[in-house]
Amino acid sequence: MVGPAADRGREVWELWDTGRPTEPGLWARCGAEGRRHWLTTALARHDAGKPDAEPGRTHHLDGRHIIDEPGFFCALGEAVNGPGGYFGRGLDALDDCLRGRWGTRRPFTLVWHHAEVARRCLGLVPRTDHRPWTFEELLAFLVDEGIDVRLD
Question: In angstroms, rounded to a whole number, what is the distance separating the alpha carbons of residues 148 and 12?
Fold first, then answer.
């Protein structure tokens, strides 16, 4: 018997069926749970042997579809490592990625295009327990980590 979790996984597996996606933004077709599966798949298929981009690089974060926390991490992985890329799936994992060997090294610039979408949609109240991170909290984390974030 196939249940809802299998359906959510199937939507991701079909997009990854022929290998790592080459088209940007495919993760946005998935529902919230599908985006979580996307992040797990991107992590599992991360090329750990690929060298990091040189410090000082500029990465462009397409924020048009960042309507929830998994969407933020899908978009961030894509900004740093291209379609199907991984660069964390939570702040602890992002902190690990910022230490190197995950696609880029600090310092770098992150240009966050369409930031107003995330500002409207990401956690509306400050985080307690398991509530999603707010836009302001995510932005503060990035800045505190020495990332030059430019909102566009």
Answer: 32
For the chain, what percentages of helix, strand and coil (3-state, to nearest 5) are there?
45, 10, 45
Alpha-carbon separation of residue 73 from 2, 3, 4, 54, 91 (angstroms): 28, 26, 23, 21, 9
Residue 58, classed as helix, strand or coil, is strand
Q: Are 79 and 40 in contact (CB under 8 A)?
A: no
Alpha-carbon gap, residue 80 to 132, rounded angstroms: 22
pLDDT of residue 128: 59
The rounded average pLDDT for each run of 10 residues, N- to C-terminus, in the chain (152 residues) is: 60 88 95 94 90 94 96 98 96 94 94 96 68 88 97 94
Give me the helices (H) in 17-68, please. 32-44
Query: What spatial distance separates the first Cα and last Cα of the chain, rounded to whole Å?
Result: 46
Angstrom distance (rounded) from CA 74 to CA 93? 13
Report the run of H or E that residue 109 belongs to, with start and end.
strand 109-113
